Amino acid sequence: MNSVVTPSVYMQRRAQVAAQLGPDGIALVPTAPERPRNRDSDYLYRHDSYFYYLTGFKEPNAWLVIASDGKSTLFCQPKEIEHEIWTGYRLGPEAATGALGIDAAHAATELETRLPRMLENRDIVWFPFAVHDGIEARVAGWLDKVRARSRFGALCPEQQRDLCMVLDEMRLVKDPHEQDIMRRAGAISARAHARAMQASARALREGRDLREYHLDAELLHEFRMGGSQYPAYASIVAAGANACVLHYAADAAPVKAGELVLIDAGCELDGYASDITRTFPADGRFTPAQRELYDIVHASQEASVAATKPGARFDDPHDAAVRVLVQGMLDTGLLDRDKVGTVDDAIESRAYFPFYMHRTSHWLGMDVHDCGSYLEPAQLNDVTERKDPLSGEIVKRRPSRVLRPGMVLTLEPGLYVRPGPGVPERFHHIGIRIEDDALVTEAGCELMSRGVPVAADEIEALMRE
Ligand code: GLY
Ligand code: MN
Ligand code: MN
């Protein structure tokens, strides 16, 4: 049975949505479909994040309807013993009202007949745009049925609006219930990283053949032992030069002494993602060249942590990290001062881009790259234009989001060194990223993923144990 939840938190969220629908609005929120993998096997089912945020309900084939008077209706799978024998317990509409704090519940098979009647005499119908394949056509079909009843006096909604605009803003600020789950997800993932580090050192000490997938298995073990349902995204376990491939997956490459391993992996716990990256020496000892670059990335991450506080902008941690990385690139000879000039010059020209080509942060929540605007809503009209120094394109820029307590973002600077003209050979094929999950607090930020060490000396000490 997967449906027992504390309904009050979801009831409050539904009430918050209802209050934003306008006097005669109505909102429709489907959960995710089951997806075939091959022949008659499906991918492991994952609910839709918006739907779960408003219900706490994980079964497939369900829709939530919220009316502006605050009444909510659920359509869900009916109780059917012949199906439950094969696919498991269903809550069913009769129990759903009490268990989920919903006002009315019906079998999902009644959606087509009931929904057009529910849309009658409403002025705005809200649903998540561009999230669910075919939803626009289904809504159009229901509106068509409403219109067919106009000669009986039924009014048809005149407007369709994007419910994501409402829900994204709500989800951007995590409430205490969500913060608690995210802290626990971060703790499980941190233990998994520590386990993989220690397993790597142990296997190489014992002279065993160690592959990336062995370390992936260590991560999965700890995720599941901690109660996580599944990884929040495909784990990256990248040995040696593979670390320079940003979206590498855990594959079969040998993990060798003297090389680094980059692991980017986080569990999903009760619908919430964690997202941690650690880079460590496979055998537990950094070489001098690895350590030199590692310390730069670590310092850049610390700069991004210091820049993450209420009132700062979303871009501030990135800008702080880039400044430290660029200084390090100049100090180590990755960038040639005679060619790129000062730190400011290299930032302005984006000369650092071959070694650091991604952003430092993204929102984190139910989705690993969580929803929420990266721009400050009150300043969308403050547009400046700038010529991109690399592409030559004119790009429009708007002020980035002001950070507020309850927002959660990753801090994940890195350095990726591919061989190239003038690139010192001792750094070739080194890829390093360090990633933690930061909850913005009243005072600054709380790192929810620091149960695994990040300083080079502490990683070496852990791997000696
Ligand atoms: N693991 C995905 C990311 O770091 O963005
Ligand atoms: Mn990330
Ligand atoms: Mn990551």
Report the strand count: 21
Helicity range of the residues? 25-40%
Shape: globular
Given this structure, which CATH class of the largest domain is correct? Alpha Beta
Query: Helical region count?
Result: 14
* Overall pLDDT score: 97
Structural class: alpha+beta
A few lines on this structure:
This protein has 465 residues and is an alpha+beta fold. It has 14 helices and 21 strands. 36% of the residues lie in helices and 18% in strands.
Write a structural description:
- This protein has 465 residues and is α+β, with helices and mostly antiparallel strands.
- It has 2 domains: 7-163, Creatine Amidinohydrolase, Chain A, domain 1, CATH 3.40.350; 173-464, Alpha-Beta Complex (Creatine Amidinohydrolase).
- 36% of the residues lie in helices and 18% in strands.
- The chain contains 14 helices and 21 strands.
- The strands form 7 sheets. Strands 6-5-4-1-7-8 form a 6-stranded mixed beta sheet, with helices on both faces.
- α8 (176-205) crosses α14 and α11 (315-332) packs across α13 (343-349).
- One manganese (II) ion binds at residues 275, 362, 410, 412, 435.
Helix/strand layout:
Layout: H1 7-18, E1 25-30, E2 36-38, E3 41-42, H2 49-55, E4 63-67, E5 72-76, H3 81-87, H4 92-100, E6 104-107, H5 111-119, E7 124-127, H6 135-148, E8 159-162, H7 164-172, H8 176-205, H9 212-225, E9 230-231, E10 236-239, E11 260-265, E12 267-269, E13 272-273, E14 276-281, H10 288-306, H11 315-332, H12 337-340, H13 343-349, E15 384-387, E16 394-397, E17 408-411, E18 414-416, E19 431-433, E20 436-440, E21 445-447, H14 456-464
Parallel strand pairs: 1-7, 5-6, 7-8
Antiparallel strand pairs: 1-4, 2-3, 4-5, 9-12, 10-11, 11-14, 12-13, 15-16, 17-20, 18-19, 20-21
Helix pairs in contact: 5-6, 8-9, 8-14, 10-11, 11-13
The protein binds glycine (GLY) and manganese (II) ion (2 copies).
